[in-house]
Specification:
The protein has 339 residues and is of the alpha/beta class. Helices cover 50% and strands 13% of the residues. The chain folds into two domains: 116 residues, 3-Layer(aba) Sandwich (Rossmann fold); 213 residues, no CATH class. The protein contains 16 helices and nine strands. The strands form two sheets. The chain has a five-stranded parallel β-sheet, with helices on both faces. Strands 6-9-7-8 form a four-stranded parallel β-sheet, sandwiched between helices. The longest helix is centred in the last third of the chain and has 22 residues. It is elongated and about 75 Å long. The two termini are 34 Å apart.
């Protein structure tokens, strides 16, 4: 019987780990996994303790045995106890002792070069550490929070809920023009114009121009020398999809905008960012009233922005994301899902 030994942290167990273990198991008849202790793994900024990490590896059903390593420099102690025929290393792993130390026991060291691209515990930890600010597009409170958070966090990258075209329009103070109707269709132009006018009307009540909080995020990023990333779907694509929303749904949602909204007898203060519970109630109402509209304006863009943030985690260690409060909770959920 050929016994294979592998070791590692295995934090936030993912498909990359599964691939490595399956490839290691192909090398022999029995696979034994040694989990790095919390003390040794702390420098990596782990999210899970050793018992949780061991349990998840065990639950994968791939190894025959999972054990937790010893404290201190005790690698050879484990090797002598397990008596492996092969030690398998991942594509980026280093043997904790000189190779000759294990080879003198007749043990073969094999490196598994293949990997699952774009997946690693480091990337997943970065995803979970993203600071997401939920804003109101016309709230002075949002602008203050954005400035303070970016100055405090000093991120490598600030991601904003804009596409490049919308950013340029905001920067130049432009609103949607009639000429856009040729590209997105007249019905979509009317919808976009209505929403733009409504936001500006509410913005006058608070003294904040709609989109000012996103420009604040960009300027704050420049101030701390962070890169800026535009993570939202192209507005033209969103508007084109809106054109396919049933007219009955559009009518119902526009009617609701003119009704007096009273939730739990709370008054809605435009100067403040609404709390998450209130936002969730409003979103649920929109979803029930206009499910297609909700999918186009909320769900699909949540997916798009979460995927954009995941991609940024491959390049940046510290990210601050600025999105509307209606997107915050679901984006955070998507960032915490392991691929």
């Amino acid at each position: 019987m050929t016994r294979v030994l592998v070791g590692g942290v295995f934090d936030l167990f993912h498909k990359g780990h599964e691939h490595f273990l399956r490839e290691a198991k192909k090398l022999g008849d029995e696979l034994i996994v040694v989990i790095t202790t919390d003390k040794h793994a702390k420098k990596k900024g782990i999210h899970e303790n050793q018992k949780t990490r061991a349990r998840k590896v065990r639950e994968s059903g791939i190894p025959d045995k999972v054990i937790i390593g010893y404290e201190g420099k005790n690698y050879m102690r484990i090797v002598k106890e397990v008596k492996p025929d092969i030690i398998a290393l991942g594509y980026d792993q280093k043997l904790p002792v000189p190779k000759r130390e294990v080879e003198k026991f007749g043990i073969k060291v094999v490196r598994i070069e293949s990997k699952v691209e774009g997946i690693s515990s480091t990337i997943l930890r970065r995803q979970r550490n993203i600071k997401v600010i939920g804003t109101s597009h016309i709230s002075p409170e949002s602008i203050s929070e954005i400035k303070k958070t970016i100055e405090r966090e000093m991120p490598d990258c600030v991601a904003v809920e804009l596409d490049p075209g919308r950013f340029e329009a905001l920067r130049r103070g432009e609103t949607i023009k009639l000429s856009a109707a040729k590209e997105i269709g007249f019905k979509n132009y009317i919808i976009a114009k209505f929403l733009s006018v409504l936001q500006r009307y509410l913005g006058k009540k608070t003294g904040v121009i709609p989109g000012e909080e996103m420009l604040t995020a960009v300027n704050s990023a420049i101030k701390v020398k962070a890169d800026v990333a535009f993570i939202d779907q192209d507005i033209r694509i969103t508007l084109q999809k809106l054109g396919k929303v049933p007219l009955s749904e559009k009518f119902r949602i526009f009617l609701s905008l003119f009704k007096k909204i009273k939730i739990k007898s709370e008054s809605f203060n435009l100067n403040e960012v609404p709390d998450e519970e209130l936002v969730e109630i409003l979103l649920k109402s929109v979803k029930e009233t206009s499910p297609t509209l909700y999918r186009v304006l909320v769900e699909e863009r949540n997916d798009y922005m979460a995927n954009a943030l995941k991609s940024l985690c491959r390049r940046y260690e510290k990210i601050v994301a600025v999105v509307g409060m209606g997107h915050k909770r679901e984006i955070l959920k998507r960032l915490k899902l392991n691929p």
